[in-house]
Amino acid sequence: MTPLDVTPSGAEPRAQPNKSEMTTRLASAAVLAVLALGSVVASIWTFVALAIASGVIVAWEWGRLVRKAGFDAIAMMQSAAVAAVAVAVAMSRPGLALIAAALALAGTGLAAAWSPTLGWSLLGVAYSVLPAWSMVWLRSDQTYGATALLYLLAVAWTTDTASYAGGNLIGGRKLAPKISPQKTWSGLLVGTFAPALIGFAFALFLGETSGWRLALVSVAIAAACQIGDLSESAAKRRFGAKDMSNLIPGHGGLLDRIDGLLIAAIAAALIALRDPANPGRGLLIW
Q: In sequence order, which ranges of the chain are alpha helices (DSSP H)?
């Protein structure tokens, strides 16, 4: 999710972008933000459409990374599972969603049974299906669904931006140079705790929740973002890739942009289980 992507094993860290590259990055990020925010606000079904499209791309990029195969049979099964899960969850049919996810897991296991990348291919189900399930479920709350997703996006984007700014402005000791050469401990700490301000802001906006408790929730979700970022960087390092794809100008692949958000969405859904009938409320109201 952050701009601090790793380079292939043994290569030098990526150079800072020039003015033209930064303009391209900002333009791409603006388009993605408008699509995300617009789909969340418009209706649950516009968000379902975005979740399906994103899940299909994630399944393709993950297969491209671990199997060097592009949109193969495994990616197709995982894409179908994303679509089935998103629609089933939106229709409040979790049983059907669970069946679709289980079939994708079983199908992936059978298709990659004799492949050295079996474990990595199975992990693709988690990367593509679980975040879609989590975010559509949060959005399904009729009262708080849109607000919960806007909050999740705000925390993820703040984590991204604050990590980058903190690392550049403060610098200091490297966090994991063998995984992500440019990430620092200062960036990790700033990126993890800065989203507490988002929690306070949303608490003030809602007027019915504890600011300090939602701030702590924000820090927990930000920590999940950091785990997602480092995990995707480790996967790219393992397979010697600089980017997941070249789909987004200035950013690489979609997974390079939303790696932290995917894990953060799962964490947010687990927190929201405290009120399973109203997941948005379960995430936001404390």
A: 19-42, 44-66, 73-90, 94-111, 118-139, 145-170, 185-193, 196-206, 211-239, 254-272, 279-284
CA atoms within 13 A on the CB side of 176: 14
Q: Taking Cα atoms as reference points, which of 90, 141, 94 lies closest to residue 280? A: 141
Q: At what angle do helices 118-139 and 73-90 cross, to 10 degrees?
A: 20
For 149-175, what is each residue's pLDDT tens digit?
A: 999 999 999 999 999 888 888 878 888
pLDDT at position 13 is: 44
CA 256 to chain centre: 9
Is residue 228 a contact partner of residue 261, using CB atoms and an 8 Å limit?
A: yes
Q: Are 84 and 100 in contact (CB under 8 A)?
A: yes
pLDDT digits 0-9 by tens, 26-71: 888 899 999 999 999 999 999 999 999 999 999 999 999 999 987 8
Judged by DSSP in three states, 248 sits in strand
Position 18 scores a pLDDT of 65
Q: CB neighbours (10 Å) of residue 178? A: 10
**Average pLDDT along the chain:** 90
Task: Determine if the pTM surpasses 0.85.
Answer: yes
Separation CA 4–CA 165 (nearest Å): 11
Q: Report how far residue 2's alpha carbon sits from residue 236's, in angstroms, rounded to the nearest whole number.
A: 14
Tokens for 175, please give them. 């966090």
Residue 165's Cβ-side half-sphere holds a number of Cα atoms within 13 Å equal to 11
SS3 71: coil
